[in-house]
Amino acid sequence: MLTCRECDLAKGRTRVVPGEGPDDATVMFIGEAPGQNEDRLGRPFVGAAGQFLDELLGLAGLKRSEVYICNVIKCRPPGNRDPLPAEIMSCKPWLEQQIALKQPKVIVTLGRYSMARWFPGQSISRIHGQPAEKDGVLVYPMYHPAAALHQAALKETIQNDMRQLGRLLQTLDGRAPAEGTPVTPIPPPAAPAPPLELRSQPTQTSLAAALPAAAAAAQPPTPKPDESQQLSMF
Ligand code: SF4
Fold first, then answer.
1. Ligand 1, from 39, 70, 75: best to mutate by most atoms within 8 Å of Cβ?
2. How many Å apart are CA 45 and CA 38, to the nearest integer?
């Protein structure tokens, strides 16, 4: 991967940013693309969004050292523009290899580009915080942490989703949250959650058995009126 030149992003990159984390990580976080700091250092999520992600991990009772973090594409787009469909397709084999090698139990998608891999055509404002099983892996869609840097009103939404992830992980493996980072219950939504087509088709795996409790632990908050309008980009 470090010498890959499968797309034009190779021309402008400083370093390829493959991802980092332990081989046996239970949880894999997948963001969008490297930014300026990531391109310089060759590490994912080391800028402002990365600092916020570190804070968020604590809300789920997680440490950065125990999760795997990567992006949909591994080289920085010029000017931090959105990845192009052709670039995502070119880089897709690398992401698929990472998933196959790491075999995480839970994949957390950060932003709409990684979400689209498992939830094509869906809106992040509609399905964030709602887990669904995909090929034996529980996929948990979230806003990208950078969304909170651009829209402060989303910070609480992202924090709540991460707390829900902590509850989900406890349901899956019975682990207690890290000391000093209690996972707080989320108030029930004011209105019933919209049906998710993916939720209604569980498969016969151990994760599927955990899904009802996980779904109960991850009741989606009611989207704020301006949420879907403001942040389709995330
Ligand atoms: S973005 Fe992916 S496909 Fe394109 S050059 Fe970098 S590693 Fe290769």
1. 75
2. 6
Q: What radius of gyration, in Å, describes the C-alpha atoms of the chain? A: 17
CA distance 77 to 59: 30
Q: How far is the CA of 144 from the CAs of 77, 124, 147, 206, in angstroms? A: 17, 10, 6, 28
Residue-wise pLDDT for 161-174, tens only, equals 999 999 999 988 75
Higher pLDDT pick, 2 / 191: 2
Instruction: Measure the CA–CA gap between 136 and 205, rounded to whole angstroms.
Output: 6
Locate the domains of the chain by residue range. Answer: 9-231
Query: Domain 9-231 carries which CATH code?
Result: 3.40.470.10
- Ligand 1 centre distance from Cα of residue 2 (Å): 9
